[in-house]
Amino acid sequence: MVNGSLFHWKLINKSALANVCHVGASMCSLLNTLHALTSEEDLYRGEEEIKDQSKEELESLIQVTDSASVIEGVDILTYSEKEWRGHTAKSTLVRKGYALLAQRFGSLRRVRGDNYCALRATLFQVLCQCEALPAWIQEDDITQNEEEVVRSWRFPMKFCDAEKRSNTIEQLKHCLKHFKNTLQEATQTSGSEERQQVCGRVFQGGEEEYALLEALKFLMLHVAMELYTHMQNGAEVPVFCWLLFARDTSETPFTFFANHLSRVGFTGGLEQVEMFLLGYTLQRTIQVYRLYKVDTEEFVTYYPDDHKEDWPIVCLVTEDDRHYNVPTASAGHQSSNSE
User: Fold this and answer.
1) Which region among 36-50, 154-168, 256-270 has the lowest average model confidence (pLDDT)?
2) Entry pTM
3) What is the model's pLDDT at position 24?
């Protein structure tokens, strides 16, 4: 269960938040979202799993494959009726969510449901929509402070040979260079159709895809370290930072990496508070349709929710806050789906 041991609310009281942030709609929305998690099932792992080093043996299960990790779109309502044909309360709820989703989108692209799922689905959308090279793109340099943190970086099996895996810094530089080159390739296409072709080539479960996902994890660490430094210096930071670093397992960037980020793709996926970090890293507002919350204010959640007006929006859909798929607009939905 997600309880006090995860977020340790005792470390963050309302007065502390008021001293470091402007209390407004954005903060209230974030706190409501994360507070709801204290009474829901932890869909990734609990503290026990973090301490259980035997879980690291699951690393050997991550293999490079040659099949598409984001498949072609299927009709949303057809998919809903096929996958949720039962008469349980959950089935009825999710079908209702899909019916509302179908008012805006026509198709659903299913994403491989491993522990990279949130990263993969989000990055797929970013590449599909990338018309200009973003200003935040990082060169393939890694600072000395970052080197100290990432020396224990793990890569998927068969991602690179043993010699390259032993040289973590050089391998990460390779991933970052590949990340930038892929973004450049996407921006140099003539339009949406060609960008889709680039994505179709990249997201095949091979080394090219895993290099992008590992680079994205590093960029998240880079942003986390910057935000943590701002916190230490008393500067204003997004509210989620105080929650991210409130956990006993994530009090510093080093422990955040060791106990959380390094395990993404292996023994766990992104937790809700880390979805905010992902959005800040990519400077995208991640709009998620949470189908099982269709009758609540959390049916559509934004990560983060304080840049909806000035950052591009990418849309995902989830049935359980664990696995994410990509909704796409069919020809009949193009006008209503435009941002």
Assistant:
1) 36-50
2) 0.80
3) 45
- Residue 192 and residue 154: Cα distance in Å, rounded? 34
Tokens representing 334 are 């193009």
- The yes-or-no answer on residue 114 being catalytic is yes
Radius of gyration of the chain (CA): 20
Q: Which of 117, 128, 130, 199 is catalytic?
A: 117
Residue of 222, 260, 323, 333 with catalytic role: 323
DSSP-derived pairing of the beta strands 107-109 and 300-303? unpaired
pLDDT tens for residues 130-155?
A: 888 887 886 657 888 888 888 889 88
| Letter string b/e over residues 175-199, b meaning 16 or more CB atoms within 10 A of that residue's CB | bbebbbebbebbeeeeeeeebbebb
Residue 283 DSSP label: T
> Following DSSP, what letter does each residue of 21-90 receive, concatenated?
S--SHHHHHHHHHHHHGGGS--SS--HHHHH-GGGGGGGGG----SS-SBPPPEEHHHHHHHHT-S-SHH
> What are the residue boundaries of the structural domains of the chain, listed by start?
4-337
Is-catalytic flag, 248? no
Residues constituting the chain: 339
Q: Kindly write down the DSSP assignment for every residue of 219-271, as one continuous string.
A: HHHHHHHHHHHHHHTT----HHHHHHTTSTT-SSHHHHHHHTGGGBTTTB---
Write down the CATH number for the domain with range 4-337. Answer: 3.90.70.80
pLDDT band at 219 (very low <50, low <70, confident <90, very high): very high
117 is an active site residue = yes
Per the residue annotation, which of 75, 114, 140, 248 is the catalytic one? 114
Cα 83 to Cα 86: distance, rounded to the nearest angstrom: 9
